Amino acid sequence: MTDTTTHSTRLAEERQTTVDRLEGLRREFGQVVEATVDANSDDEHDPEGATIAYERSQVAALIDHAEQHLAEIDAAQERLAQGIYGLCVVCGRRIPEERLEARPTARTCVEHAGRA
Ligand SMILES: [Zn+2]
Description:
Blueprint: H1 4-38, H2 47-82, H3 97-102
Helix pairs in contact: 1-2
């Protein structure tokens, strides 16, 4: 089945997965921040402090990425509501179902990927 319900369900599942991941990452980030407070605050001379700072930036990057993905899912759901989901934003052709399955937030056909 390649109808709207399938797309809607898939996006809802993708959204839930992303929201869960974000929650986990934010919890992890909170723990890293707590660890920073507990650790010797002399970051520059404390190898552990430097490691924590690195960890914190890694988790922050993952959070950014997940938030961006969530915004993409929201946009895809919006396109679905408008009846234009699954159409390439560059050429207007239908995006192959296999591509939508692998990447539910795809806005372009394979040919135009990276151009929109
Ligand atoms: Zn296209």
